[in-house]
């Protein structure tokens, strides 16, 4: 199907925004009611490379494995739950920007059942936007 990319600016320091996005066990505070549960820890860090999280609402969800982490800069993941897709990979990058941190979110999906590009674009923008709004709210709460 293809790659979908979107970007949002989160008002906060890059390191703080990165920490919020990579703390998947805290997702319920960012994008409730969607939550994440650690299924197995990463090889060197609890939520680092190799970590598997189940993301979803109640019993409905997807398991994703963290495949790369560059602290403060980027992380990547892939689906490990059987899905009607041939591959499902995400990559998130963080950049210093006026007004905070620019978060660039890329989703690379090849679905077994074709989904229209506009539907995928809305999904990616919705996910990134929801995380950004949640991160901004959480950063305000912490300050």
Which terms would index this structure?
Alpha-D-Glucose-1,6-Bisphosphate, Chain A, domain 4; 28% helix; 3 helices; alpha+beta; 143 residues; globular; single chain; 44% strand
User: What average pLDDT do the residues reach?
Assistant: 85
Uncertain runs are none
| Most strands sheet | 7 strands, antiparallel
Counting structural domains, the number is 1
Give me the CATH fold name.
Alpha-D-Glucose-1,6-Bisphosphate, Chain A, domain 4
Strand portion:
35-45%
Please characterize this protein's 3D structure:
- By secondary structure, the protein is an alpha+beta fold.
- It has a single domain (2-142), classed as Alpha-D-Glucose-1,6-Bisphosphate, Chain A, domain 4, CATH 3.30.530.
- Helices cover 28% and strands 44% of the residues.
- The protein has 3 helices and 7 strands; from the N terminus they run βααββββββα.
- The chain has helices spanning 14-22, 27-31, 117-142; strands at 2-10, 35-40, 52-57, 60-70, 74-79, 85-97, 100-111.
- It has a 7-stranded antiparallel beta sheet with strand order 1-7-6-5-4-3-2.
- Strand 5 and strand 6 form a beta hairpin.
- It is globular.
Short synopsis of the structure:
This protein is an alpha+beta fold. The protein is built from three helices and seven strands, in the order E-H-H-E-E-E-E-E-E-H.
């Amino acid at each position: 199907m293809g790659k979908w990319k979107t970007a949002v600016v989160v008002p906060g320091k890059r390191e703080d925004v990165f920490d919020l996005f990579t703390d998947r066990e805290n997702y319920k505070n960012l994008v409730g009611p969607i939550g994440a549960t650690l299924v197995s820890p990463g090889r060197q860090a609890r939520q680092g490379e190799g970590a598997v999280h189940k993301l979803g609402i109640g019993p409905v969800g997807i398991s994703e494995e963290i495949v790369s982490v560059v602290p403060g800069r980027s992380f990547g993941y892939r689906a490990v739950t059987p899905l009607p897709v041939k591959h499902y990979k995400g990559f998130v990058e963080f950049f210093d920007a006026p007004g905070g941190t620019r978060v660039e979110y890329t989703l690379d999906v090849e679905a077994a059942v074709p989904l229209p590009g506009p539907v995928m674009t809305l999904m990616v923008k919705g996910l990134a936007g929801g995380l950004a709004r949640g991160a901004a709210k959480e950063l305000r709460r912490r300050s």
